Amino acid sequence: MKNHISFLLRLAIATLIVFPALALAVPTTAPYNTDVTNSYVQDQTSQVMGRLNSILCYMGAMAPNLMVNEGNYIALVDENTCGSGGGSGGKSNNTGPAYSSVVVNSARASNTDPMLVKVWLAPQSGVDMKVYATAT
Q1: Domain boundaries, the chain
Q2: What is the 3-state composition of the chain as percent helix, strand, coil, each rounded to the nearest 5?
Q3: Residue 86, pLDDT score
């Protein structure tokens, strides 16, 4: 029985070596060949990732790591650079920077403790926003 299975296995391998097209042939009417291919560059995560990138840009522009334990300071953030403009496709009607001022306080007890950052955004449209972040 073992010899019979071994013979069949060798026969199958020899057949695939001699006729590889039989093993790899896909009929022209198969869905692999007939289905329409679609490509997308934007999906459901794009908007969320855009907001996250905007927040990270704002935090970078505030540079809390450069003003640790210096008390409150005012940082100017360019809305045209970090704003979530919704993807204008490279078109811009901006004539210059549009700065937004924020009050930042960055503190750290020691080099091993996390950096604590407090941010107060100026009220816009009646909304006063406060942000509290830690970085380790």
Answers
A1: 2-34, 48-86+95-135
A2: 40, 25, 35
A3: 45
As averages over each run of 10 residues, the pLDDT of the chain (136 residues) reads 76 73 71 82 75 84 89 87 56 70 89 88 68 79
Q: Are 100 and 120 in contact (CB under 8 A)?
A: no
Token digits for 7? 């013979």
Distance in angstroms (rounded) separating the CA atoms of residues 118 and 57: 16
3-state secondary structure 28-76: CCCHHHHCCCCCCCCCHHHHHHHHHHHHHHHHHHHCHHHCECCCEEEEE
For residues 72 and 118, the answer to whether their CB atoms sit within 8 Å is no
- Report the chain's terminal Cα–Cα distance, integer Å: 66
Alpha-carbon span 13 to 11, nearest angstrom: 6
**Residue carrying structure tokens 């039989």:** 22
Q: Which two tokens stand for residue 119?
A: 């941010």
Q: What is the pTM of this model?
A: 0.53
